[in-house]
Amino acid sequence: MQTESVQALYIHVPFCPSICPYCDFHKMRRQEDLVKAYLKRFIEEAKFYAQSIKGPFKTIYFGGGTPSHLKDDELGVIIEGLDRFWGFQAEEITLEADPLTFDRKRLDFFKHLGFNRLSIGLQSTQDTILKFLGRKHSAQEGLKAIELALDAGFRVSADIISAILGQDLAQDLHQVAALGVQHISVYGLSIEPYTPFSFRKISQSDDKAGDDFELSEQLLSSYGFYRYEVSNHAKPSFESKHNQVYWHGDYYLALGPSAAGFLPLREGARQSDIIAERYTNPLLKAWLDQASPEYHPLSAKDYALERLLTGLRTQKGLDIKDVKVKSAFDIVEVYQGLIREFEGLGVLTLEPSTNILKATPEGLSKLNGVLRRFFQHL
Description:
Strands 9-10-8-7-6-5-4-1-11 form a 9-stranded mixed β-sheet, sandwiched between helices. A 3-stranded antiparallel β-sheet has the order 12-13-14. Strand 16 (348-351) and strand 17 form a beta hairpin. The protein is of the alpha/beta class. The chain is built from 15 helices and 17 strands.
């Protein structure tokens, strides 16, 4: 793979004010001693990577957990460290935020720190659905939080969970879009193993999931949004720059417990068929004890399949020439029969003049099946 700079930084903050029954991310209720230990270890980890990875980053993203659940001085410790090692400046600096963790005064503090984008976990505008999801804020509190963030001058993305029995998704989308947010992520409810929802045997409806997928695009397009990725809708020029680093195969550094990054090969890790590596940090206890990440070497084939998995989810599609330049893996040559088959079925298009492989609108709705065929081919 050609040498490239690390484009983005992800920071995982595992602490939450409450635990939602559908969530399978690494998270926990905050304990003061754990937060203190987390901050100390975070600075150590950042200092270690700063020896080999140079800034500035294009994007910085605080995810979780609930990063906005950290106190002002705790956020300050993280940002002071990042500023010391790389500079806390980027085109896009996002903070994931719970509606109950900020008011207008705190939003001004977030802006003073350097954040310019908030990703707000709204999830619904209906109190019955919020209660089902285990959310602590009311519909009114969630909508008010978005209004405050917009008024404070942030670029705002709102998360909505769809495919819930009894939910009126149209109501959710109308109410959020009408507030003037620039980005809306619509994630279908997924029952993940070992979550409270899985133990309660909460059921899902594939039919509702499909209907909600179509409804999201139809309704949000009337407000000026377009679907630029399967679950993400934005007004033009307000797409998430950070997420596009993931989707288009660029390198990114990840800090914090359970954080997963994608970096060039470390010295001493080079093998003839390996071109890059992913890594996953251990969970909090082991991470605090400085246990090593788990490394996942990527061959050219692995890299190409990952680019198919993420690139076909996007409106921009997959730049097959870029994949070949970075990995020497020729997707068209290896998958030419399958690509022709899918073109005939109207689910993929290949534009020879631009080397872009894209899913059609019908292909996006059937993407899991399409991708499964690619993975089965080799």
